[in-house]
Automatic annotation (TrEMBL), chain A:
Signal peptide: none annotated. Pfam families: Fer2_4. Coiled coil: none annotated. GO terms for molecular function: iron-sulfur cluster binding; oxidoreductase activity. This is 2Fe-2S iron-sulfur cluster protein. It comes from the Bacteria. The keyword Oxidoreductase applies. It comes from Shinella granuli. Keywords: Oxidoreductase.
UniProtKB/TrEMBL annotation, chain B:
Residues 395-470 form the SoxA A3 domain. This is Thioredoxin reductase. Pfam families: Pyr_redox_2, SO_alpha_A3. Residues 16-332 form the FAD/NAD(P)-binding domain. SUPFAM superfamilies: FAD/NAD(P)-binding domain. It comes from Shinella granuli. Gene3D superfamilies: BFD-like [2Fe-2S]-binding domain (1.10.10.1100), FAD/NAD(P)-binding domain (3.50.50.60). Signal peptide: none annotated. GO terms for molecular function: oxidoreductase activity. Keywords: Oxidoreductase.
Length: 100, 488
């Protein structure tokens, strides 16, 4: 839902729900996803509604995604890293597999 | 002297003279003053880069590189440079998840639990300065949970930190100077804003009028007026908007509202909401610092004296975290609190420098009363009437459910948690606390001060259990569980 107005100096490759993306190395995960046109990153816990980043400053916990196997990470607070694997979430976090 | 950057929990000392939470204007200024006093200072900041929200990405951005951010943003560069020239330690991406005071009075100590790169540590400090800044006041309207809807602050962060411009049609709505500031920055960067829907009630200007002369003497006035005129030449503006809702199924596709007695619908792919900011006081609240209702700013704020002392002697609070006054005031507030906390550690008396900062802070506060009253959001946007609007986004609790609980005589926000799970999701009430207080006050015809707010408990940020379990335990804690004195 955003477009980039600068050419990033450095790029890294991340994998989002199985899709490889080249993104600005200085971006947060949330900014990288928004810049790639992803406004929805998860389905809500109680009524399964689409949700996306809202505050981009660690307050709202709307941008929760699974990063490198760890669930419920705040995408806006985690800088991207080359080779990072990100998956969108559906519902509440589970206690099996993928937790720490 | 140069700043030490710590990225690993093992590199933290067990004890510092001063710990500061937050590296925005108040935090950087407090750290700089404490370091000048020769004290051992650590600054924990949740963000990967210093600057807070106002000076987001100040370590990377230059005036030449991103000129559209404007001259006020540039003030952050000097703060960052001064902070870099100190012998303090800066710990980015550090989440302070617990703060407790040990002991009382002058001998009191602050005990912080902080998570850095996946591991937690206990850090003791003689004094702590909380510079946790502000968050945007929630603006609950129908459709505000749809993807494509964000806060104006968030859109501005995307611009400052990642040079991202929103996809059109773009609609900004709400109340406060940030709408125009962001619009101006987007236009200067070559972007487009399709409409601004101002929800500020018209009668606000009458209430603010007695403060207009003080406002005109402030630096905001002429800069702000110029900015508004520039934006109004380029953007369609609707005033005194009511009955706002965002439409769309799986993402926002438009807005519908009332303006000038007519219902208007506009297409929108990016809808940004904002109705001012309120103190982000979760850590102060969880540490047991007293809060008080500020009726002009319509929010709870920690109680502090003129030098930032909270009601807990080891804890100082500086900047927007103790009441909204903006970045310049926050900087002086940080210097004043930093010096006061530092002098307590040194057991020294008063400081001439501090008296000068008190005068500068007073001057920078000019115009604040006017801004607070002129942009005070309407009650219908703080405590909506429509029952189907989501109030608690995490647990998906509606305004209607809260009003129903209010009618049943719920005692306050804490009992509401047990009835509805409202405020018990991962954001721990950050997104609904302000709404809940005002909804209960409105529905039960009580004063918000009497309704109160959530009582918060650590951990105030979610931490994996393994991190908590791996912390060293006190001998009392080991005895409580095992009955013996073995180590952990």
């Amino acid at each position: 839902m955003f477009r980039k107005i600068e050419n990033p100096k450095d790029l890294v490759t991340i994998v989002v729900d199985g899709r490889e993306l080249e993104v600005d190395a200085t971006a947060s995960v949330a900014a990288a996803l928004l810049g790639a046109g992803m406004a929805t990153v998860r389905r809500s816990v109680v009524t399964d509604q689409p949700r996306g980043p809202y505050c981009l400053m660690g307050i709202c916990f709307e941008c929760l995604v699974t990063i490198d196997g760890v669930q419920n990470r705040q995408a806006c607070m985690v800088p991207v890293r080359d080779g990072m694997t990100i998956s969108s979430q559906r519902g509440a976090r589970t206690t099996q597999g993928g937790g720490r | 002297m140069t700043l030490t950057i710590i990225r690993n929990a093992d590199d933290l000392s067990a004890r510092y003279d001063i710990a500061i939470v937050g590296a925005g204007p108040a935090g950087m200024a407090a750290a700089t003053e404490c370091a000048r006093l020769g004290l051992a200072v650590v600054v924990f900041d949740e963000n990967a880069e210093a600057g807070g929200q106002i000076y987001r990405a100040i370590e990377r951005n230059t005036r030449a590189g991103r000129p559209y951010l404007g001259s006020d943003y540039g003030r952050g560069a000097g703060l960052w440079a001064a902070f870099c020239a100190t012998a303090a330690s800066h710990v980015p991406s550090a989440a302070v998840w617990s703060l407790e005071q040990q002991g009382e009075g002058a001998a009191a100590l602050a005990e912080l639990r902080v998570s850095v790169a996946g591991r937690s540590r206990i850090v003791l400090a003689r004094r702590v300065v909380l510079a946790t800044g502000a968050t945007e006041r929630p603006m609950p309207v129908r459709g505000w949970t749809l993807p494509g809807v964000m806060s104006v602050g968030a859109a501005q962060i995307a611009l400052k930190a990642s040079a991202l411009l929103p996809e059109g049609p773009v609609v900004l709505t709400g109340s406060g100077p940030l709408l125009y500031l962001y619009a101006d920055q987007v236009l200067a960067a070559g972007g487009t804003i399709d409409a601004i829907l101002e929800t500020t009630p018209r009668r606000n200007w009458l209430r603010a009028a007695p403060h207009v002369f003080s406002f005109l003497a402030s630096p905001y006035a002429w800069k702000g007026l110029g900015l508004m005129l520039r934006v109004r030449r380029a953007v369609r503006v609707f005033r005194a908007v009511t009955a706002l809702e965002i439409t769309g199924k799986d993402r926002a596709d438009g807005v519908t509202f009332m303006a000038g007695g007519k219902t208007v619908s506009l297409p929108a792919r990016s809808v940004f909401l904002h109705q001012g900011v309120i103190p982000h006081a979760n850590l102060a609240n969880a540490a047991g610092c007293a809060l008080a209702w500020n009726d002009r700013q319509k929010c709870f704020a920690p109680v502090v004296d003129g030098e930032g002392r909270s009601t807990r002697p080891a804890i100082f609070i500086a900047g927007d975290g103790n009441g909204i006054a903006g970045a310049v005031v926050a900087e002086f507030d940080g210097r004043i609190a930093g010096i006061a906390a530092g002098l307590e550690v040194l057991g020294a008396g008063s400081s001439e420098a501090s008296r000068r900062f008190v005068r500068l802070r007073k001057r920078a506060l000019r115009g604040r009363a006017f801004i607070d009253l002129a942009y005070q959001p309407a009650l219908s946007f703080r405590a909506p009437a429509a029952g189907d609007v989501v109030a608690c986004r995490c647990e998906e609790v509606s305004v209607g459910a809260i009003r129903e609980a209010a009618a049943l005589g719920v005692a306050g926000p804490n009992q509401l948690k047990t009835m509805l799970r409202c405020g018990m999701g991962p954001c721990q009430g950050r997104m609904c606390a302000a709404t809940v207080t005002e909804l209960l006050a409105d529905a039960q015809q009580r004063h918000p001060a009497d309704v109160g707010t959530y009582r918060l408990r650590p951990p105030i940020k979610p931490v994996p259990l393994c991190e908590i379990a791996a912390l060293p335990h006190t001998s009392e804690a080991v005895y409580a569980v095992t009955g013996g004195h073995s180590g952990h």
